[in-house]
Amino acid sequence: MSAHWFRYTWDLGKLPEQPVTIASPLVVRRANREEESAVVTVAANAFSMDTGWADIHKSLLGKLQGQISEAFADKEPSCIVLQYGNRIIGCSVLRPNEESDHNLITGPCVLHEYRSRGMGTSLLGASLLALKEAGLRKAHAISREKTVASRFLFTKFNSTSEPWQSELEASPKIAA
Fold first, then answer.
1. Given a cut of 90, is residue 3 above it in pLDDT?
2. Could you tell me the pTM of the whole model?
3. How far apart are CA 63 and CA 38, in angstroms?
């Protein structure tokens, strides 16, 4: 049985000036090049805790690590991080390219122990704002139907969605 995928689209011209505010002591900021490994750790943690990705977890993480490395290869990484004290507890890796099928490479990722406090929404708002500031008129994200992102995040900020065909599918299990 194959999973259903969706592509979410936001009209960035309709995004509020300040989509979300972050309560102190949390800080949302651009990532530094030296923080790539922390971003990979947060993203891997977030995807491993979401059962909607379980059957393709290994292939997905391999692909994501490559895309995160690409984002950090730039002089200024295309990544937003959520910091609590000295610790990065959330991230959102971006692809600020108008022609891309998806601009939110990882989508908002938050460490499991910090979830359900609105931080994913804050990261999504900051990500969309960063893409708008980069000159994009629309932003896209791709996700599976029963993931945390599809159920609770990507429906925010007046997104629209359409079915999507992904190359990342589980290989069929063969009976022994």
1. no
2. 0.89
3. 17
